Amino acid sequence: MLCFVALGVFLFLSIFSAKYRPLARRALDCVAKKATLRPCDTGLDEEIKAASLSGIMKISPGAATFVNRHFEAFSLAFTLLFFVSLFFAAQGLYNFVIYGNCNGFEGGFCIYSGVQNELFLKAPTSLDGVSAGNPNANITFVEFGCYTCPYTKAAETGVHDIIRNYGSEVHYVYKAFPLPSHQYSKEAAIAAFCANDEGKYWEYRAALFENQTDVQLRGQAAFSDIARRLNLTGFDACYSSGKHNVDIQKSADECTASGIYGTPTFFVNGKAFAGPGAINDAEKEIKRLLGK
Amino acid sequence: MALDAKKLRADFPVLSSSKTIYFDSACTSLKPRAVIDAEAGYYSELSACAGRSHHSLAKKTENAFESSREKIARFVGAKPDELVFTKNTTEALNLVIRSLDYSQRKKVISTPLEHHSLLLPIMEQQRRGAVKMEMLGVLPDGSIDESSLSAIDRSTALVAMHHTTNTTGMAAPLEKIVKAAHDAGALVLVDSAQGVPHSRVDFRRLGADFLAFSGHKMCGPTGIGCLVGKKEAFELLDTFIVGGETVETVSLSAVKWKSAPKRFEAGIQNYAGAIGLAAACDYLSRAGMQNIEEHEKRMARALIEAIKSIPNSTIYGDQDASKRCALVSFNLKGVQPHQVALMADSMSKIALRSGVFCAQPGMEAIGAPKEGAVRASLYLYNTEEEVRIFSETMQKIARL
Do A46 and B399 touch (CB under 8 A)? Predict the structure, then answer.
């Protein structure tokens, strides 16, 4: 049964590496035999089963026994799952080509598209946070980010491009989203607030992203080092005082209210953008609003 | 002096490069550095042909080839002119079975335990109407039913059978069989593919008329095998593959054939293989065939104990280790033999063989299911520590 799954997987891998082609051929042979109600004698099923059971056995012999005893059922389940996934993948691809979003006309979260469904992500109700650009502009550009998140760091160039190119027509606001899954996320946000107190937020923010690995490893020691390099004389006192805890909490509450599930998430006049293509789609939206 | 397997392992490059626990020596053995170097030496230092040209490189090749023949013949207690080089055991068996004259006697006796390489040539001869095949009986423990030796009678041309089976590792009672065959005036062909590599074989003492074996199962190269035969027995064979160097003279109306062994060595020979096989004989002689045999008995005992300790396991053949070389075929209840072999490889890098081992009727005769069995076959380079890892791995797989 697993040869159906194997055929799909090995065919796909064969595009990138020739070493999978003999396996794909064996899987194809097996599928052809199964499809014509003949027994598969390529041995591929057995090899897959042996490799799977050996792998599971290293983790849990009991689980390996269970899987072995119900292997046909698992094979059937995986095969069905494979075909269902294949169907949805094809449907998503079709929607993306036709509508520009995997979910089609109604939109929603799509890994290939930054445009998000407003049912899931709601625009923040305040514009509190560190800001740049024109506070009186008609376009608000809000970012929920994390200083220790690699994806926020990756989007940073795009954010700066928007501020530089459209700063007079856009009001940019940054809201820290202290993600528990990112080491020192909350602490980095406090450190950035402290730098802001001394008027060196942007320099400090740039240094945080630049030294992200070091920050994730050393935490407060790295924050202090950056502060020293930027001559932030009141940094250590500010950082230990806990004076910005309330700002962090407020920001976290806003994230929860907006339904943020990952960073960076952008809002352009309330329209949500998240995922890998978010910054590009947000820029397109700004340009559209500006008629550019 | 006991064989030091741990020390010998350093001689086998594959063992250090792959870290595999190699338990598939009945299929083919690993090759020591000395054999690899000897075979490569032909290509780097000689690379000429023997017995044809007269330049010095050809002479050196001729000397190396013939001294290899001498060394290999001596290894099995035969004379150099009693040894024909073949491609492998299969070709050697085909040579005898297909070239023997069956005009006076048509019966060929064999056993169901044989490798396909021996069974199929007989079956093909039977299909052509040249011979009538009869089988000796097999007892439930995988041994030959000696009461069936009465089938060997004056109509028997040839008794063709194993020295040691590749399914149970048990040896045939050749002394009795050879006597019964010779008493009836029949020839005896012994498939010693699993015999010569694992025990001291003396062709004279064995008394058989033909003895076939392969180089690659005894630490030698692939592509080289031998057919050892008594001079008078070779005279009874018709030509097999003919060509260059098999003849004294040729005219369009008459051919004068050379005598054995040259009559059966048509065309350019596998000189590198012969030189490599001679190096393998040297290697095994240095280790001592008696030491190897004792080491294998120890390994067989350890293997049998390891498998017997697994609940619901089945060992095929007699469980007395003294009757085997270090080869055990077995099954674990509820797990297909191929699964066992694949998982052993994946879990502990243990190389095992699974299936019917090119001996389908033989597997049926010893009571194995149609899927066959798992076979662990060890050699001089295997250790007790490897058997311990094998045992632990099998225990885990058996719990599936």
Answer: no
Ranges A77-91, B17-31, B219-233: which has the least confidence: A77-91
Q: Does B338 touch chain A (CB under 8 A)?
A: yes
Q: Is A175 in a helix, a strand, or coil?
A: strand
Q: Where are the alpha helices (DSSP H) in B29-173?
A: 33-41, 56-75, 89-99, 116-127
Q: How many domains is chain A built from? A: 2
Q: How far apart are CA A204 and CA B62, in angstroms?
A: 84
Instruction: Classify residue A61: in a domain, yes or no.
Output: yes
For A39, A71, B26, B167, the CA distances from B338, given in Å and listed in that order, are: 16, 16, 17, 16
How far apart CA A179 and CA A189 sit, in angstroms, is 10
If you write DSSP's letter for every residue of B50-74 in order, what string do you get?
Answer: SSS--SHHHHHHHHHHHHHHHHHHH
Q: Determine the structural domain holding residue A74 and report its residue range.
A: 2-88
Task: Assess A58–B contact: CB distance below 8 Å, yes or no.
Answer: yes
Residues of A in contact with B336 (CB under 8 A): 46
Best of A44, A49, A53 to substitute, by most chain B Cβ atoms within 10 angstroms, is A53
List the CATH number of the domain containing A263: 3.40.30.10
Q: Of the candidates B286, B319, B345, which is a domain's last residue?
A: B286
Say whether both B356 and B254 belong to one domain. Answer: no
Give me the pLDDT at residue B150, please: 97
Q: Which of A49, A58, A61 sits opposite B339 (nearest CB)?
A: A49
Q: What crossing angle do the helices spanning A61-69 and A71-99 adopt, rounded to 10°?
A: 90
> How far is it, in rounded angstroms, from Cα B144 to Cα B113?
9
Q: Are residues B87 and B220 part of one domain?
A: yes
Query: What confidence tens digit (pLDDT) does each residue in B130-161 have?
Result: 999 999 999 999 999 999 999 999 999 999 99
Residues A135, A208: one domain? yes
Residues 128 through 167 of chain A touching chain B, CB cutoff 8 Å: none
| Entry pTM | 0.74
Contact B314, B331 (CB under 8 A): yes
Of B259, B286, B313, the residue at which a domain comes to its end is B286
Q: What tens digit of pLDDT does each residue of A10-58 get?
A: 998 999 999 999 999 999 998 888 888 888 888 888 888 898 999 999 8
Contact B342 A50 (CB under 8 A): yes
Domain range enclosing B306? 5-30+288-398
A140 with A278, same domain: the answer is yes
Q: Which residues contact A189 (CB under 8 A, 6 or more apart)?
A: A146, A147, A176, A178, A244, A248, A251
- Of B1, B387, B395, B362, whose CA–CA distance to B194 is shortest? B362
Are A50 and B400 an interchain contact pair (Cβ–Cβ within 8 Å)? Answer: no
Q: Which residue of B has its CA nearest to A59?
A: B347
Whether B400 sits inside 8 A of A43 (CB atoms) is no
Q: Do A65 and B399 touch (CB under 8 A)?
A: yes
Chain centre distance of CA A231: 35
Helices A61-69 and A44-59 meet at what angle, rounded to 10? Answer: 150
Are residues A83 and A140 part of one domain?
Answer: no
